Amino acid sequence: MSNYNEMWRAMGLNMQAHDQLLRALPPTYHDVYLTQPSRPRGMEYFDFVVNEIHGLRIQELQEHKKSGGKVIGAFCVFVPEEIVRAAGGICIGLCSGIDIGTAEAEKVLPRNICPLIKSFMGFKLAKVCPYFESCDMVVGETTCDGKKKAFEILNDYVPVHIMETPHMKKERDRALWLQEVNDFARLVEEFTGCDIKGPELAKAIQEVNGKRRALRRLAELRKNDPAPISGKDSLLIEQIAMYDDVVRFTNKVNELCDELEGKVKNGEGVFPRKTPRVIVTGTPMAIPNWKVPHIIETSGAVIVAEELCTGLRYFENEVAEGDGNIEAMLRNIADRYLGINCAVFTPNPGRMEKLVQLVREYNADGVVHCTLSFCDPYAVEANRVEKVLKKENIPLLKIETGYDQEDTGQLKTRIEAFIEMLG
Ligand code: SF4
Ligand code: SF4
């Protein structure tokens, strides 16, 4: 990576803590990613993005800000990126996939809280994340209680706007969510000083749909046996989707898919044919949380799909496109986002139906349900998942884990036994 010290210092990063973080990433990335055999050539771009994780993209964000643009951060796939783009802003998903600034975070949060929440608070308080420090505003949501209350505290350190995400999908919830989306559009206009116009909103919808389409194309290719790309590489791409430039990212995913189509035609894959196929579901796996996928794919199985927000939930539905006016477009946006099957909804039958459908479509042999410690919505909903999968005779392994590596050995033993049973 080039020398970005001056930029990081000017952004107010804690240089010592930031250096430590940057030193920790390359060895992990090497062990988890660069040791994989037969990786597609198209992964070079995504390796480059990781190599430049706090460099080039941050430079782009800083240049955007210098020219008067705004950067808006989000922690949830419910935040409509299209609206931010239509107002000339950049929307980035903030990661929170690593234990960082824990001591700082525990000064304001209880110890027993989900690691994702602790991580985002730690990132902010320890001042180690240049993405966070680039944000002019963060958009939170009322999905789970822990996040909802943590956003109140976060607001002491960065402006936070909260979108009220409903917990049911009745007509009145749809009306509430549509109102929230409309309010968000007005707020973004005020914040950026830029009125959202019909053509810009239509273009933003098309571009973000283009990203979703490219990711779906990649997902479709993973239905083949042998799998043309590993689950770990696919997850990495899905994680990078949250913060990379939308158009460039879409092109790179499509280029990769061109290459993978050739591999599929030639019967080439990254694992031998008939390798046990697994679907991962549960709480999102934010970058650089690769622990469980790495264990699965070094224990004799391949991950063929992620029913996660860093996975299919992020790109499976599109916003309807058409010639509608702004009001109609915002309604289409609201409809699309309310289709996400997050465990905070009650009841949440869509997620169970989707899982069974995915197992059939991707010809999966089993499902690994992975919950972050202290994540009540997914930990409790695992019971519903178990019930439905049992009825369909689909093998399931339930895991609860955090960001630390202490349980790696124990997880490996359980995952190996599960895969052996699948095989
Ligand atoms: S799991 Fe729910 S709260 Fe978390 S990112 Fe997904 S939609 Fe948002
Ligand atoms: S992982 Fe679970 S507890 Fe943590 S923020 Fe997401 S929904 Fe909330």
Characterization of this structure:
- The protein has 423 residues and is an alpha/beta fold.
- Helix content is 54%, strand content 10%.
- It contains 19 helices and eight strands.
- Strands 2-1-3-4 form a four-stranded parallel β-sheet, with helices on both faces. It has a four-stranded parallel β-sheet with strand order 6-5-7-8, sandwiched between helices.
- Helix 18 links the parallel strand 7 and strand 8.
- Helix 3 packs across helix 12 and helix 11 packs parallel to helix 13.
- The longest helix has 24 residues.
- The chain is globular.
- The mean pLDDT is 96.
- The structure holds iron/sulfur cluster (SF4) (2 copies).
- One iron/sulfur cluster binds next to helix 7, helix 9 and helix 18.
Brief sketch in words of this structure:
By secondary structure, the chain is α/β, with parallel strands linked by helices. It is 54% helix and 10% strand.
Major sheet attributes: 4 strands, parallel
Question: What is the strand content?
Answer: 5-15%
Ligands, ions, cofactors: iron/sulfur cluster
| Cα-atom radius of gyration | 21 Å
Oligomeric category:
single chain
> What is the average per-residue confidence, as pLDDT, rounded to a whole number?
96
SSE series: HHHHEHEHHHEHEHHHHEHEHHHEHEH
User: Strand pairing plus helix content: what structural class?
Assistant: alpha/beta
DSSP E strands, number: 8
Low-confidence runs: none
